[in-house]
Specification:
Elements lengths: L13 E5 L4 H12 L4 E6 L2 H11 L5 E6 L5 H15 L4 E4 L16 H29 L4 E5 L12 H21 L5 E7 L5 H7 L3 H8 L13 H12 L10 E4 L11
Parallel strand pairs: 1-2, 1-4, 2-3, 4-5, 5-6, 6-7
Helix pairs in contact: 1-8, 3-4, 4-5
């Protein structure tokens, strides 16, 4: 039997993408399907958008389905993983991408613990649940899979505002480093992608600005110039690398996709 085309790096793989209804998750779903995945499961709370993405991807070669899932509820994550294994026989890739930012733009003197707990319930608790249950499924299925979490370039910095978000992304990095140690003996890789500012629907909503306005507001922070603005598709390319065999010896790593980003200060 001939080897799969070199452009089909996820030939016959089964993937779950949380937060797959828009932004980075949506772009990654398309990338996985284009690269030969036989099944992509999109999990999100945005039901209408998620269904539309699934319908736009499903082909004769790739079964793309949507499952409504709130990752802050561990039972829903467990059910997501279980149903995927029952339908497709295995899980090769978990892209734990669902995340939020608080619209309050918190600083330390006005720190709201209710908002903090909401952010952490999704960005940290949800990520941990996804890694845990995908890890169980891979171990039980004898799959040497790849688990990828969405962190942020801000996991390397402090900040004056949005500190609950920044704290959560530091925690994601810690989760990845710890999980890579615990799952490495099973041949399971755990990494994270760390994007710089991307004008996703979530980011635009938090800043209440258009995509173009968000991109221009961060322009001065990027070291890499004249390459255009960082887009969700650029992050999806990095996720593809971490998902496929090109990164077979990469684990516990945070892959920055940030054009040399260094934050210059808070934004209104």
């Amino acid at each position: 039997m001939s080897n799969p085309s070199p452009t089909k790096k996820l030939h016959n793989k089964v993937a779950i993408i949380t937060g797959g209804a828009s932004g980075i998750g949506e772009e990654t779903a398309h990338r996985f399907a284009e690269n030969g995945a036989r099944a992509v499961v999109i999990a999100d709370i945005q039901e209408e958008k998620g269904q539309k993405v699934a319908l736009s991807i499903t082909t004769s070669n790739c079964c793309c389905t949507f499952i409504k899932c709130d990752v802050s509820d561990e039972e829903e994550v467990k059910s997501l993983v279980k149903s995927t294994v029952e339908k497709h026989g295995r899980i090769d890739i978990m892209f734990s991408n669902a995340g939020i930012m608080s619209k309050r733009r918190q600083d330390i003197l006005n720190f709201n613990l209710v908002d903090y707990e909401n952010v952490f319930s999704i960005n940290v608790r949800g990520m941990a649940a996804c890694v845990k249950h995908a890890g169980h499924a891979m171990v039980e299925g004898g799959v040497k899979g790849s688990i990828i979490c969405t962190s942020s370039v801000m996991a390397n910095y402090g900040a004056k505002i949005s500190i609950d978000y920044v704290m959560s992304k530091h925690a994601v990095l810690g989760l990845v480093r710890c999980a890579s140690k615990g799952l490495g003996r099973f041949g399971i890789r755990v990494n994270c992608v760390a994007p710089g500012p991307v004008a996703t629907p979530m980011t635009c909503g938090v800043f209440q600005k258009s995509e173009e306005e968000v991109e221009r507001s961060f322009e001065a922070d990027f070291a890499l110039k004249k390459s255009g603005y960082l887009k969700a598709k650029d992050v999806a390319d990095a996720v593809m690398f971490l998902a496929c065999a090109d990164s077979v010896f990469v684990t516990g790593h945070s892959l920055a996709v940030d054009a040399g980003y260094v934050p210059i200060g808070p934004r209104s």
